[in-house]
Amino acid sequence: MRFVTTFHLWPFLDTLVSYLAAFVLGTLIGAERQYRQRNAGLRTNALVAIGAAAFVDLGQRLGGDVESIRIIAYVVSGIGFLGAGVIMKEGLNVRGLNTAATLWCSAAVGAIAGSDMLAEAVLLTGIVLLANTALRPLVDAINRIPVEGRSVEATYLVTLTTTEQQAQGLSDELVARLEAAQLPVGEVRIEPRAGGAADVVATLTSTIVDAVELDQVTDAMQALPGVRHVTWQGRTHD
């Protein structure tokens, strides 16, 4: 049995400590994510930390520090694919970036624990928890600052509802009126709807603009024949 020749008590105990540390620290990070009902919660973060610790510890046991460093590089790149799985794009909004970043940090905690630097692993865990909890009130305070007082970019959607036959002509008219108002149009698409209707959606990317300018354009378009409804909405982003 090869197990008899490969098993050594003290290295085994060292591995056990690394695994347990990764499990406990990953669980602490995951508990905060689970409490906030995120996609990657307690079990995911714990498993990511344990997996990273296992790979790094295995590399160190078999090939020493040089091999463990090589495995750490693979862990860093590999965890990116897992993080991409929790990032979701809904229209112009992107969700899950913070959860993906937390998974990346959990892998770092596991890799550090697998390298037998337990104090550093505990320190990083505390910093991750601090970032996900203590910074939240600061984020909320910044978000409450009026948009008019900030220098930000925003994406605006102007949506016009008409018939499929008139959609193209009204799309050209909408673009012309927006550009005449010096509102640059980034994209225009026509989305068919049930009953022969269609939505003309114009996307504007610009700095914050006066709502009156968009209201003037939408009011003018609303008065045109064949236009059933015109509305606009804006979303700020980084």
UniProtKB/TrEMBL annotation:
Transmembrane feature ranges: 12-30, 42-59, 71-88
Cited InterPro entries: MgtC/SapB/SrpB/YhiD_fam, MgtC_SapB_SrpB_YhiD_N
GO cellular component, one term: plasma membrane
Primary location class: membrane
Membrane topology: Multi-pass membrane protein
A Pfam family the protein falls into: MgtC
Keywords: Cell inner membrane, Cell membrane, Membrane, Transmembrane, Transmembrane helix
Domain of life, per lineage: Bacteria
Domain MgtC/SapB/SrpB/YhiD N-terminal: 20-139
Family per record: Belongs to the MgtC/SapB family.
Name of the protein in question: Protein MgtC
